[in-house]
Amino acid sequence: MIATAEPVEAPFIIELEQFSGPLDLLLTLIRDERVEITDIPIARICEQFLARIHSLGLSDAAEYLEMAARLLRIKVQMLLPRHGNGDEWEDPRAELVRRLLEYQQMREVVDLLERRGDDRRERLGRGVTLIEPARPARPLSLALPELLAAVDRVLRLARKPVLHDIVPRALDVDGAIDTIRALLQLRATARFSDIVSAGAEPWRILSALLALLELARRGELRVRQLRPFGTMDIARDTAGEAA
Amino acid sequence: MTPLAKLLEAALFSSGHPVPLDELRALDPDASAAAVAMALDELREHYDTGGHGVELVELAGGWQILTRPEFTETIERVQLAVRPQRLSSAALETLAIIAYRQPIGRAEIEEIRGVAVGSMLRTLLERGLIDVVGRAEGLGRPMLYGTTPAFLEQFALRHLGELPRADELAVALRSEPRAL
After folding, report:
1. How far apart are CA A101 and CA A106, in angstroms?
2. Which of A12, A14, A20 is the best residue to mutate to test the B interface, defined by the most B CB atoms within 10 Å of its own CB?
3. Least CB-CB distance to A22: which of B114, B177, B179?
4. What's the domain count of chain A?
5. For residues A185 and A238, is the Cβ–Cβ distance under 8 A?
6. Which residues of B touch A15 (CB under 8 A)?
7. Per-residue confidence of chain B (180 residues) as pLDDT tens digits?
8. What is the CATH number of the domain that holds A220?
9. Long-range contacts for B127-131 (Cβ within 8 Å, ≥24 apart)?
10. Is residue A114 within 8 Å of B148, Cβ to Cβ?
11. Do A21 and B115 count as a contact with CB atoms less than 8 A apart?
12. What ipTM did this prediction achieve?
């Protein structure tokens, strides 16, 4: 018996021991390079950022990619000629610097919380979680018939797949052609409803339609339908007969 | 020890959480606030100088009797009790942002952290460290999060004001961590 597990929809989460996000990685690079946050050598940092996310296998993580794109854009903006005098120039790095400073401040709080949390964890209060002593598992007593019976129950309960019988039924176009020819021997014109009775099975209707188209192609009759889904008028094609 | 100090000791011993000052004062309606404060001092002195395995700690807006850190490892080794789990760095980042900017919505947290925090918020909610404290005006009325008393307990903070102010941060980190 093959059991297929239901696919579980889980969000794709990337969390590394080293970095908790693109800003963390960026801040680490800036620290390693010993440069000022307020004056980042953007081309160099950008290159290193790309190299790092590549080597860490993060090239697919949207958040890191977004930051990479942002860095590249800033790098390009830095290369553009500056308009006006120096005072009016707006540093393209300004927004990134603001975010980095904010993030850095938050990291400082994390350090503080970490220390305080560790301090508290060192002290136990009443009602702390008790560790359940691990009990050795009791030896299993199971006879083969019991096991087989269980398997049988499982198999019985397992939902049977719904199978549909599909019977290929060939269309009888030739038969329909004969019918139509016979009808047009008797009458000069006919309607589609004369060929196919009201409650006819789909294969009969299809056969009749294909036969009609085939006879029209051969020039034995003409089919006219004034509007979509309207009645189909069939007329013997005398010109075709003559030919 | 004075009778009041003994009464406070009994009450604090029976509680698994920090007991707020007003609850301690309710134990003895005749005792003044100053008398309760003095009795708490007396109890702390008693534990600190009398050679005890426990100590009196002020945290999360109350007082609690906790074991001294030097015994924790041994207690854990014989599996009598276990320290609560440490939070991941990512969880701490999220928590730090909420602590400082509360009430704050998810979008703002993600803006500061630069990553999605949906699952992180769920974890912190489950642990009771944060709670939904309201809803923002504006589109979709997003939920706003804030820290809980359990947050203060977990990080041995007396109150939120004990966190350094933003302009004090760099200074606060240079100084040695204060003992509890």
Report:
1. 9
2. A20
3. B114
4. 2
5. no
6. 88, 90
7. 899 999 999 999 988 889 998 899 999 999 888 999 999 999 999 999 988 999 999 988 889 999 999 998 888 888 777 777 888 888 999 999 999 888 999 999 998 888 889 889 999 999 899 999 999 888 888 999 999 998 998 888 888 888 877 666 654 443 334 444
8. 1.10.10.580
9. B129/B95, B129/B154, B130/B95, B130/B98
10. no
11. yes
12. 0.76
Q: What type of residue is B105?
A: G
Domains identified in chain B and CATH numbers: 3-77 (1.10.10.10), 89-174 (1.10.10.10)
Cβ–Cβ pairs < 8 A, chains A and B: 136
Look at residue B154 and give its three-state secondary structure.
Answer: helix
In B, which residues are within 8 Å of A127 by CB distance? 16
Tokens 């005098």 -> residue: A85
The residue among B88, B93, B127 with the most chain A CBs within 10 A of its CB, best to mutate, is B93
| Cβ-based contacts of A63 with chain B (< 8 Å) | 114-116
State the angle between helix axes of B106-113 and B89-101 in degrees (0 to 180), rounded to the nearest 10: 120
